[in-house]
Amino acid sequence: MTGERAEGTVSLTRTVTFTAAHRYHRPEWSEAHNRDAFGDPSLGDYHPHTYACEVTVAGPVDPATGMLVDLRALDRALRSEIVDRYDRRNLNLDVPEFADGRDIPTGENLVRRIATDVQRSLGRGARVTEVTVAEDPTLRATWRADG
Predict the structure, then answer these.
(1) What is the dihedral of CA 20, 89, 123, 107, to 10 degrees?
(2) What is the pTM assigned to this prediction?
(3) Are 69 and 126 in contact (CB under 8 A)?
(4) Per-residue pLDDT tens over the stretch 59-108
(5) 119-142 pLDDT, tens per residue?
(6) Where along the chain do its domains lie?
(7) In what order do the strands lie in the sheet with 89-90?
(8) Fold of 11-144
(9) Residue 123 to residues 69, 81, 126: CA-CA distances in angstroms?
(10) SS3 52
(11) Within 10 Å of residue 37's Cβ, how many Cβ atoms?
(12) Where does residue 3 fall: left (phi above 0), alpha (psi -120 to 50 degrees), or beta otherwise?
């Protein structure tokens, strides 16, 4: 049925992985308060995860290419804003936004940071609508665009 197209929104999801260490800790709190608030993730040693990060973009499909985003541009944005930034890093020590006294490197804070940074890197066109970061098979955080 050439020429006919289903109505609706089109989205595309790409997954990247990175390995990083972190701990949950507020430097202005006592060790007991940190332990009460965060449990084991607050203990002195940083612990690693191999994160899986899914980024979903949506937008109009270009009739000439049949694509909503240039995959090379999306891959460049994901590499620069996620993989190059977080892979083989200690999030608390190597990423300024997650340094002591700033945002705690929880999955919730990671998804919000990644959504903002990838959108800025992509510029106009495709819109980041969802980011999911899984630190293991049992725990994931998801950010979704409003509206």
Answers:
(1) 30
(2) 0.90
(3) yes
(4) 999 889 999 999 999 999 999 999 999 999 999 999 999 998 899 999 99
(5) 999 987 789 999 999 999 999 999
(6) 11-144
(7) 89-90, 11-22, 47-58, 127-136, 139-144
(8) Tetrahydropterin Synthase; Chain A (3.30.479)
(9) 11, 13, 8
(10) strand
(11) 14
(12) left
Query: Measured in whole angstroms, how far is the alpha carbon of residue 19 from the centre of its chain?
Result: 13
Q: How many residues does the chain have?
A: 147
Residue 20: predicted pLDDT: 97
Secondary structure of residue 77 in the 3-state scheme: helix
Residue 11 near residue 57, CB atoms below 8 Å? yes
Residue 70: name the closest of 1, 139, 131, 126 by CA: 126
pLDDT in tens, 24-51: 999 899 989 999 999 887 777 889 999 9
Q: What is the CA radius of gyration of the chain?
A: 18
Measure the CA–CA gap between 27 and 60, rounded to whole angstroms. 46
Contact call for residues 23 and 42 (beta carbons, < 8 A): yes
Tokens, residue 35? 């332990």
